[in-house]
Design brief:
This protein has one domain (4-131). The chain contains five helices and no strands. It has helices at 4-30, 34-41, 43-74, 77-106, 115-131. Helix 2 (34-41) packs across helix 3 (43-74), helix 3 (43-74) runs antiparallel to helix 4 (77-106) and helix 4 (77-106) runs antiparallel to helix 5 (115-131). The chain crosses the membrane at residues 12-39, 45-69, 81-101, 113-131.
Amino acid sequence: TYFPLQRLILFANIYLAAYFATLMVASFVIGMEPMLFFFRNSLSGYIYLELLEALGYILYLLLQCLNLIVSFSNGPTSAKLVAFLQSGVSIFIGLHYYVTVFHRAMAQKAPHTSWKIHGAYTIAFFVLCLFSKIKHGKKEYVQEQYSS
């Protein structure tokens, strides 16, 4: 069973994996990085989009931190490890995205990313989705009754 917090994080990971997969596919379809295309055609819209994405990702990181706190307060070792790895990967991707896209957008510069980076983000968020399949509960062992 999943707790509501874990379901929210799973949904966010699925959304982020699909979002970055869409950006990767779009880069092949239009022949250039989609955010660069958006930057060149509508600078104000691009900056607004990046602000909304940053706000959404900050909320996602807050969910990850809350999950980390809950897991370390009363979860088994596997839950602690999964929460720590999820938080670490999420923070790393967030920092990388901040440096390559968001910070440059606020300076009104073109993003510095490619389909390869979007592919790596897609794989990372897909792996985070797989982490949710790890069972966090303690195993119940069946004791056999021997009749003599």
